[in-house]
Amino acid sequence: MLRIQSSMGFRVGFGLFSVFFLVALFGQVIAPFGFDQVRSESQVFGSLTSPNEVNVFGTTDSGFDVFSRLVLGANTALIVMTLSVLLAAGVGISLGLVAGFFGGIIDRGLSLLADALFAIPAILIALVITFGLSAGSGNVNSAIVAAVMAEGLT
User: Fold this and answer.
1) Chain center to CA of 88
2) Other beta carbons within 10 Å of 134
3) pLDDT, tens digit, for every residue of 70-91?
4) Among the listed residues 116, 34, 23, 125, the one whose alpha carbon sits nearest the alpha carbon of residue 74
5) Which helix (H) or strand (E) holds 100?
6) Is the dihedral of CA 123, 124, 129, 132 positive or negative?
7) How many helices (H) and strands (E) does the chain have?
């Protein structure tokens, strides 16, 4: 039977993960304003205002509520994380199965390819993939796909 030791680090990590997961799931309910909303019913948000009773974390230079954008962005982050882990697992398992089944020169070639990719900084590969996939499109969905590909492949 699998037994998880209840250390303090595990409890803190699991607690933070649970809070993030719940915020990501219920972000539409938690956020007081929309992602691109610059006014409430009674006032227009100012530019770079400090935290106050209306804007809990203040506003950006464009007048957006920072707390609402943070909460609503957690959902996008959760989607990107989940899809990139699934992509990485799919590619890694597939290449591992091919290398293990065929062996020989295919195994050696895949090992050399992996070694070459480890020699290049992952952030550089991620930037190249992101720029190549979403260059100038301005579409949110293409940016999410680019982020998933960049994270999953690196």
Assistant:
1) 14
2) 20
3) 999 999 999 999 999 999 999 9
4) 23
5) helix 66-102
6) positive
7) 6, 0
